């Protein structure tokens, strides 16, 4: 029956989709219903769903993806949900916003989170511990997290992510920030900054490179890593200015190259070419 309803929904009966989705989530029969977010977006447009209906569907999609251990898709559904709240409505989704924050922090492959800071429900968390913790994962370092943990140990211990997992991610994020300001990092500096034992530094660096956070090459004889590039943990005005300056420099270089080619072209006959 659920399978029949799932196929029937695409004809435009929007009132049933939320009910069917809720049913299959509760009964664990998710294989009988479409969970393709893009397809569902098309259906919601076709059905002319109002904002409240869209919110309900995204909230159910988050539950559905969570139930089948598709964490990244669950997070994407939750972000889409939070985008549907205006500045005045943000406070109404503080519970969803808290879940969104912790889900991002807990996901082992998500490192850039500054886009969350623009969501109104996330802003509504300002002054709460989950918002303070998010700010640390957005642009803080390991020392900031350790201080937060020492001051709010009970709060952290109740989260759906362990202190050890947080330490691991914050070490990686801290190294990414360090790599933005230099072309090489001594292992001794990593020992000091990341609270690592000397014998753990090289495996950690290998993990950081494998995660894609930094690109570089280990120099074992000199006990350092040469940095070729790293991620930007935040992308705000300074990053846009940097890109603007780079583009302007490239544009000037292209003009110089064009001038050189043009002069070379006109000079060729004189050179006997």
Model description:
Mean pLDDT is 86; it is low at 1-6, 8-13 and 266-273. Helix content is 64%, strand content 6%. The chain is mainly alpha-helical. It has a three-stranded antiparallel sheet with strand order 1-3-2.
Identify the strand order in the major beta sheet: 1-3-2
The description of the largest β-sheet is: 3 strands, antiparallel
Supply the helix-strand structural class: mainly alpha
| Helix and strand run | HHHHHHHHHHHEHHEEH
**What form results from the Cα inertia axes?**
globular
N-to-C terminal Cα separation, in Å? 81 Å
Share of residues in helices: 55-70%
Rg, rounded, reads 25 Å
Tally of contiguous helical segments: 14
Mean pLDDT: 86
Short account of what is shown:
Helix content is 64%, strand content 6%.
Give the key terms:
single chain; 273 residues; mainly alpha; three-stranded antiparallel β-sheet; 64% helix
SSE topology sketch:
Elements: H1 2-9, H2 14-27, H3 37-47, H4 51-67, H5 71-82, H6 94-106, H7 120-123, H8 129-139, H9 142-151, H10 153-157, H11 163-180, E1 184-186, H12 187-194, H13 198-211, E2 214-219, E3 224-230, H14 237-267
